[in-house]
Amino acid sequence: MMDRYLLRYFLAVIDAGNFSRAAAQCNVSQPTLSVGIAKLERQAGQPLFHRTNRRVELTAAGARFATHARRIEAEFALAEHVVREAVPRTTLRLGVLVTIPAGWIETFVTRLGDTPGRLPIEIVEGRERDLIEQLSRGRIDVALTLVRAESDRFAAEPLFEEGYALALPASHPLAGRHTIAAGELADNVMIVRRQCELLSDTSRHFTARGVRPFFAARTLSDERAIGYVRSGLGVTVMPACFRDPGIVRPRLADFAFTRTIGLLYGAHVDRTALRGGATLTALADEVRAARRGG
Amino acid sequence: MMDRYLLRYFLAVIDAGNFSRAAAQCNVSQPTLSVGIAKLERQAGQPLFHRTNRRVELTAAGARFATHARRIEAEFALAEHVVREAVPRTTLRLGVLVTIPAGWIETFVTRLGDTPGRLPIEIVEGRERDLIEQLSRGRIDVALTLVRAESDRFAAEPLFEEGYALALPASHPLAGRHTIAAGELADNVMIVRRQCELLSDTSRHFTARGVRPFFAARTLSDERAIGYVRSGLGVTVMPACFRDPGIVRPRLADFAFTRTIGLLYGAHVDRTALRGGATLTALADEVRAARRGG
DNA sequence: GCATATCATAGGCCGTGTCTATGATGGACC
DNA sequence: GGTCCATCATAGACACGGCCTATGATATGC
């Protein structure tokens, strides 16, 4: 496995023009450097230098390799430098729970263009556990996701709390009702939102009440689920925040689950610095506004 | 000095999520990986992971470092790959002797745009010895420079031979003459072309004939030298190929030096492949045409 | 409170990168 | 043509350090 010190030998030979000077430059003896280059060539599978007496010249393979070797060394130097100095992040990596309406994020991103002091943004979608994992890996900086009382692993900023509700087509016989019991939906075809954080609870709720529906669709997208509902394919249960002209959202009786949506901050980020930039403030405002007005 | 294996440990921890799984992934024991990370952190000057029991999370420094670590690993993989496979060069790196008229190269580059099968080109200027060094280092592929009989280090393709001549302003008293002896220029102010491959020979030629002129300018650019001559600042000696409306080029008596201009091919390049592409053919044609017509 | 998971520490083994010493080869120079 | 000097390659010894097993410290979960 090609090691770094071999690259330094290699580059030194290129720069110095011969093995002896290269060895001196690397603070090793000439034989050491010689076996090093030999080892590198063995690993490369072919000679990297043409040894004529009096001087060495790169072979074609050596010339190709040199470009990458230099880049690697430069990147090492940069890495060693950057790990010490606190360079501010240039992009905000935002995780977004899949069960948050896509429209909110679209609006947020659209309006972000006008926000002064905004950061370039990078969005990563995922389920709750995906986002938590990405957050702990340092792959994202902030997650717009569920905030749970028991999750104290990350600094949390709750934005709103909401319940879950049925989603029926506007033409559904029960569309005018305010609250509907599970039993009343016994004959209804249903749609499974596979990404839902409450999937098993919902399933349990119905089976416990003797309702074992046929599932007309299993989807990972809430937008498609809404489309199916609107078209009359079936009904489903979704977070209350999802609204659409073609569907109604009556309560499901005795289904008291709620969720709190908010921001979770990765352990590696400077939270105040992120809030200082207007980006996250804009996101929080947008989410709250969408929740109220949606 | 941060070694490659430490980077692999580091990245494995990020990917695996904890030290034990990372160690397994690297085929080392957990303690080995543990001391490896500790070593890396000591070299980095600060912790890269937040160790809470149950899991590890990247620190801010760790997150910054991770980007570069991944890039380095990717580049290593690429280097190992590229050194084996013969990927054709995508650019032709051309060295050009500084004492070759800039206009030739400009015309060549301009016309190259129309040449089918051309390679993107990258030009490196330098004196003869600079180009030879770059060529042997594999930094350039071909050099348009002096071809000497005794230089058999590189494959050579001569294009033309020429002498050297005086350069006088068109208004100079001796401008009409075909040949001028050094002694006739005793009172003339001269211009030193510092980059000239024949500088010392020229100087010797004059001093040997008792001419010790005042030097009005020392320049590294032939175009500026011509400008000085044209403006009447002084006279100089240049390769015969330099022409300009404002100057005349009489011979310098008993100055029999000539030079052969041609292409030198780096040891690392596949010469036939390069000629196969139309780029070098175009260059050779252009140089010969400029020489004839110039 | 025991079982289980985590990462850290200690001490010894051994691979390998390093050294010095020497050889092989090919100009340069008289 | 023989000597000198430069080049890179090879051989054998040393020792640093990366690796192991064994054990400890600490927190979580049933």
From TrEMBL, chains A, B:
Q: Print the keywords alphabetically.
A: DNA-binding, Transcription, Transcription regulation
What family is this protein classified in? Belongs to the LysR transcriptional regulatory family.
Extract the PROSITE patterns matched here.
HTH_LYSR
InterPro entries of this UniProt entry? LysR_HTH_N, LysR_subst-bd, WH-like_DNA-bd_sf, WH_DNA-bd_sf
Q: What is the lineage of its organism?
A: Bacteria, Pseudomonadati, Pseudomonadota, Alphaproteobacteria, Sphingomonadales
Q: What domain of life does the UniProt record list for this protein's source?
A: Bacteria
The protein, known as: LysR family transcriptional regulator
Specify the HTH lysR-type domain's residue ranges: 2-59
This entry's Gene Ontology molecular function terms read: DNA binding; DNA-binding transcription factor activity
Tell me if DNA-binding is a UniProt keyword of this record. Answer: yes
Where does it sit, as one GO cellular component term? protein-DNA complex
Q: Which Pfam families match?
A: HTH_1, LysR_substrate
What Gene3D superfamilies is this protein classified in? Periplasmic binding protein-like II, Winged helix-like DNA-binding domain superfamily/Winged helix DNA-binding domain
Organism in which the protein naturally occurs: Alterirhizorhabdus solaris
